[in-house]
Amino acid sequence: MKIFKTLRSHQPSFSTADGSLDLTAPKAWKDLTQQQLHYVLTLLTTFEDHTVIKTYMFMRFTGIHVVKRDRFGWKCFVRTTWWGKRRFFTVQAWQVESLLSQLNYIDSYEDIDVRLEDIKGLRAVDVNLHGVCFLDYLNAEKCYQAYMLSPSDRYLEQLALILYRKKNGKMAKRIKMDAAQLLGVFFWYSHIKLVLSQAFPHFFKHVDTDDSSEYNIIDAINTQIRALTEGDVTKEETIYNIPCWRALTELDRKAQEADEFNKKFNNK
């Protein structure tokens, strides 16, 4: 029963007037509690079939208990209070499919706008990396790209050490995570990349349309640094320590200027 107290969204309500039962489940990533988010991530690392995952989610979040299957469908019950009377009802397969449609948000992770706020006592940085220095952003990008090229948990663990900090803001030396937390780190940074690409469209358009067949993250990082320092190595330390959003703003402006120059040059 303790699990249901932490994962159930709301107590089911039962109308004695018409016998209707109102069941509530989170309808978006942002509606999930921290416990619910970890549960969903655990399901995603356990099952491949999203219908199975959504069924587990709906049953757990609404507090439905399945009793048995009979010729009418699935006989279930809920409690309208934690220790209240059982309310029995029968649900058919087509009804379950209809109810599960409200959980379709788990089919896409790039628009996930929440993350696990705490892992092993380490606190998450800003959800969109505001306040994170440019050097940490570059290292985070390096870890993410390394994972995309060669999936390994160690790259996600390295990424997590950048995204999760001690109370004093410093990085931990190591972090041990379960499969759900590792997936959460990947989902979160994938969302960050979407947010940044929308905020700085000129710069990330240039990165995404790189003509090279093999993406070299080291070359890409060095190119970014040269663009900001204009070749002056004495400025590198300063560039590394400025907030990443400020650095990306400048890179986006330079990319926009390059676009405008190319348009004028090509029109001549």
* Alpha-beta content class: mainly alpha
Largest beta sheet: strand ordering: 3-4-5
Instruction: Report how far the terminal alpha carbons are from each other.
Output: 74 Å
Q: Work out the number of β strands.
A: 8
Main β-sheet description: 3 strands, antiparallel
Number of helices: 11
What's the number of domains? 2
Globally, the shape reads elongated
Overall mean pLDDT stands at 85
The stretches of 5 or more residues where confidence is low (pLDDT under 50) are: 1-6, 209-214
The fraction of residues in strands falls at 5-15%
As a whole number of angstroms, the C-alpha radius of gyration is: 24 Å
Helical content (DSSP H or I, runs of 4+): 40-55%
Order of helices and strands: HEEHHEEEHEEHHEHHHHH
Structural descriptors:
268 residues, mainly alpha, three-stranded antiparallel β-sheet, 11 helices, 8 strands, 11% strand, elongated
Task: Describe this protein's structure.
The protein has two domains: 13-106, no CATH class; 118-267, no CATH class. Helix 2 (34-46) runs antiparallel to helix 3. Strands 3-4-5 form a three-stranded antiparallel sheet. The protein has a three-stranded antiparallel sheet with strand order 6-7-8. Helix content is 52%, strand content 11%. The model is unreliable at 1-6 and 209-214 (pLDDT under 50). The longest helix has 24 residues, at 244-267. It has eleven helices and eight strands. The protein has helices spanning 2-7, 34-46, 50-62, 93-100, 134-149, 153-163, 179-199, 201-208, 217-229, 236-241, 244-267; strands at residues 13-14, 21-22, 65-70, 73-79, 86-91, 118-119, 122-124, 164-165. It is mainly α. A hairpin with a 6-residue loop joins strand 1 and strand 2 (21-22).
